[in-house]
Design goal:
Length: 168
């Protein structure tokens, strides 16, 4: 846990499992921005199934995800990611359902994690909002999603530690 860690509250109103969220937030302090962006995109790709049908195969959606992935390996700049993000924001304006909008918001925050690392946690929270919309009043589903998110993040952290040990 990072020194001075104090769990924050989600920026959106959601029914959540605050215990697992606090664990996630503590673990995010141990990872780089690129690693958090990778985690956020894992979450966002799961949310893609809820994007409105007419947007699911939109080129701008794929380009925004690609921009973040390329940024993670230093092949595009943050400016280029922000340009892709702006096009994704325009796509969001055409969404026709609250579920589709929540899914696109999850993707937008994940892509925006290239701009600021705290946006990865916002993508995570947005995925919980999506669960709240698709499975209302189902705390078991919320806890399952949060646990899955934590497991993905912990797996990334473990892989990084294992890779560091191999380098030494």
């Amino acid at each position: 846990m990072t020194e001075g860690f104090r769990p924050s509250h989600p920026k959106i109103e959601i029914d959540d499992d605050p215990g697992i969220r606090a664990q996630i937030e503590a673990l995010t302090g141990e990872l780089s921005q690129q690693q958090l962006a990778k985690w956020a995109l894992i979450i966002a790709k799961k949310a893609l199934q809820y994007v409105d049908n007419q947007q699911k195969y939109d080129r701008q959606l794929r380009l925004a995800i690609d921009a973040n992935e390329l940024w993670q390996v230093n092949l595009v700049s943050g400016y280029q990611v922000r340009q892709a993000l702006a096009r994704l924001t325009k796509l969001s304006a055409t969404t026709t359902s609250s579920i589709g909008a929540a899914a696109l918001d999850c993707v937008r925050w994940a892509v925006a994690s290239a701009d600021a690392d705290e946006n990865a946690l916002r993508a995570s929270d947005q995925a919980i909002k999506l669960v709240n919309l698709t499975q209302p009043n189902d705390m078991v589903a919320v806890t399952a999603e949060r646990q899955w998110q934590y497991d993905q993040l912990a797996g990334l952290a473990a892989n990084i530690q294992q890779g560091l040990r191999r380098m030494l």
